[in-house]
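User: Can you predict the 3D structure of Sphingomyelin synthase-like domain-containing protein? Sequence below.
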Amino acid sequence: MRWRGGLGVAAMSYVAVDYLRHLSPEWHERLQPALWTVLALIAISRVPFYKHWASEFRAAIPFVASMLFMLSCLLFEALSVRFVSAVLGLDWHSDTPPLPDTGQWLLLSLNESLPETLVHILRARIIGLHHFLMLFIMLAFSVLFGSVEAPGLGLGARYMFTMAIGRLLRALSFVATILPSTRPWCASSRFRVPAHPHYWAQKYYVPYSSDADAIRQVINQDIAYAETGEYLGDYRPDWGAMYFLIDFLRPTPSEGSSWYNLLKKAGGGCNDLLYSGHMLVAVLTAMAWTEAYGGFSSVLIWLLVMHSAQREVRERHHYTVDCIVAIYVGVLLWKMTGFIWQSKDRARGRRLVKLEKIQGRLIQAAKDSDMEKVRELLKEVEIGDQESKKKGLTRSMWLFSGVIIFSALTIVILAFTWTSDG
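Assistant: Sure. Here are the predicted structure tokens for Sphingomyelin synthase-like domain-containing protein:
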């Protein structure tokens, strides 16, 4: 029997109680530990009665593999964030105006026409990144109550794998074309990178960045023709085997002792990172919730996604295009990866179709008491199911391998390009 209403109530209670930190910190300090204690005790009480441990153990390996893939994509993303923040120097960040954003204009105009109470609701920090992550964790653990179909680790594996692909595509997108920040003061307050551009930017971008005639000539000649003059060198610490990262990270003497520490400081970056990583997490949580649980609570979660999107634009963490792209990329990625983690349902469907095809012969063999014929027909169904499983496993392995090889080749090509040009 499924606990249909409880999960939605628990999720909305979590969001409401956590928002009390803004309304009444005193009540928040009381209610939040009490809520988590109650939810934890209820979950623990269900553990002895859980009947799907075998499927959870089978899903453990894909879950761990997805987590490792996710961590590698986050490492590449952190490298890309630092790169796009450092390559043009701090002067570019402070001098370059933000791009025009009609979504920002629309929200400002609505502030003038909507009721003040509604504007306050739109401005309220109701939900953030950690809320969406916690909502998914609650969804996965609800397998203990039968609210979501087991295994919970299988759902987690799909969630992490889909997010990893999304983060990889995001990093490749924002590292390909560097967009100015919606907050021009951000880079100088957070990073200590050199003020001047890297050699590559000085050679291929700076001479042609604002002169229309120079842009026309470089298009016609298809070669960097301008003299760059004397290049201002960068600090180059001894990073051993990771020496090639210097051109990506551009350390300064005050922070250049460890390349890993620089990546940890990258955070969300300062210039615009197309598309929004926060919105990707929000959309994947909403997609998982809608598909696995559904109901009215999924509608509320989508409303929270929309609220979060407008607040990202309103507070100028992202351009409107970042949120729009994140929404449809998240939806499409979740649908795309569904064919891996729903193979069990498809296999069951194929088995039923096969049984329907041989139903007449099976019934006739049973009437004739021909047990040898019955065994032969059932074996035919089992062999077909095993072949389908092998094909599904092969497709999954090829997909995992392809993504990992693609990621590795991208890093190698970027490293080779920079070390040869720098």
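The mean pLDDT is 82. The longest helix spans residues 371-421.
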